[in-house]
Specification:
This protein is an alpha+beta fold. The protein contains nine helices and seven strands; from the N terminus they run H-H-H-H-H-H-E-H-E-E-H-E-E-H-E-E. Strand 4 and strand 5 form a beta hairpin. The longest helix has 69 residues. This is Histidine kinase.
Length: 363
């Protein structure tokens, strides 16, 4: 199958090459056809014959060069090394161009026009044919190698893009793989305290955790999740945690319903809520309220989670938040942001800002 593809590609390139050869040399040779018809009185038949021969000479010389360059693999050479080889090659091709054109001229005037022309004088007549040959061969060879250089750059760019995509996906998979055990560990800790105190509630907690893991597992490979699905995970998680915290944990929300069908990184809101409970509510004797807000700001989706507490400056950000920052940076190429700020009145606000219009963001 691969062989067939390569063959088809080769045929396509060969077809394009011959089209360029015929069109290019046909266009260039029109000037000389006009000259011999008006100045030298060749007549229509011999003008057309001369026109075909001019095209043939140009194609013959450049095609021979192409065959040689392909065998010598000149297109794969660095530019400096290639240029060193091209200068003498262009000179050689220009000389051959002069000789073939002079022989053609000599053959016409000797065998067709019946005039007595000197072969040596015909061959050494180089002005202005040499300059024409240098110009034409330079243009052709430079155009040929520039095309191949461009093709090579396009292929390299595609390969680099594919490698970048693979690396990006590997990073996201790695971060996601770290995040799920992190989430599971904290959830199991919540359930552990319920097993002895209230087995019935513990069973309900296990059911909730089971649903959470099932949902997150299905969405994990996609990298992104609809906000409405992420909120369903958050509500299940809050119900799970309320079994432990009871009235000490309250959730208030302010959700823009126009945004629920947009996608965000999987488990991003859940992570912020989890951190709000672990580092805020859990440390307060009387607990508190976690306030979740999702709204539109200009061309961005703004997600904020506010909870009572203070930021512990002696500790660096946890694994979950570090991973979230990396995921946002990779997924949105630096256009998204995450911040964690301490406000007055013993309050901490975590904020995610995501571009509103991105590919595959909305249904």
């Amino acid at each position: 199958m691969d062989i067939n593809k390569k063959t088809n590609n080769s045929n396509t390139k060969l077809s394009l090459y011959w089209k360029c050869q015929l069109i290019g040399w046909s266009a260039v040779s029109i000037y000389w056809a006009y000259t011999v018809y008006t100045r030298d009185n060749y007549g229509i038949f011999y003008t057309l014959l001369n026109y075909v021969l001019d095209i043939s000479i140009g194609i013959f010389l450049t095609h021979m060069y192409r065959q040689f360059a392909l065998k010598a693999k000149w297109s794969s050479l660095p530019i400096k090394k290639l240029l060193i080889r091209l200068v003498p090659t262009i000179l050689l091709l220009a000389v051959l161009y002069v000789l073939l054109n002079n022989l053609k001229w000599y053959a016409y005037w000797t065998f067709i026009a019946g005039e007595n022309k000197n072969l040596l004088q015909a061959i050494i007549y180089w002005d202005p044919i040499l300059l024409t040959g240098l110009r034409l061969m330079s243009i052709w060879i430079l155009a040929y190698h520039l095309y191949h250089y461009y093709q090579k750059e396009v292929v390299t760019a595609k390969e680099n893009a594919q490698l970048s995509l693979i690396a990006k996906q590997a990073q996201l998979d790695n971060l996601s793989a770290q995040l799920n055990p992190h989430f599971l560990f904290n959830s199991l800790n919540s359930i552990k305290s319920l097993v002895i105190e209230n087995p019935n509630v513990a069973r309900r907690a296990i059911d909730l955790l089971s649903d959470l893991l099932r949902s997150s597992l299905y969405e994990k490979d996609k990298g992104l999740i609809f906000i409405k699905n992420e909120l369903a995970l958050v509500y299940d998680y809050i119900e799970l945690e309320k079994m432990r915290f009871e009235e000490r944990l309250q959730l208030k929300t302010n959700i823009d319903n126009e945004l629920i069908n947009y996608k965000i990184p999987t488990l991003s809101i859940q992570l912020l809520v989890e951190n709000a409970i672990k580092h805020g509510i859990d440390l307060k004797v009387g607990g508190g309220v976690v306030f979740l807000k999702i709204n539109k700001q200009d061309a961005n989706i703004c997600i904020t989670v506010e909870n009572p507490g203070v930021i512990n400056t002696e500790k660096s950000a946890g694994l979950g938040l570090k991973n979230l920052k990396k995921r946002l940076d990779i997924q949105y190429k630096g256009k998204a942001s995450f911040s964690l700020k301490e406000k007055v009145n013993d309050c901490v606000v975590a904020e995610i800002i995501i571009p509103l219009h991105i590919e595959d963001e909305k249904i």
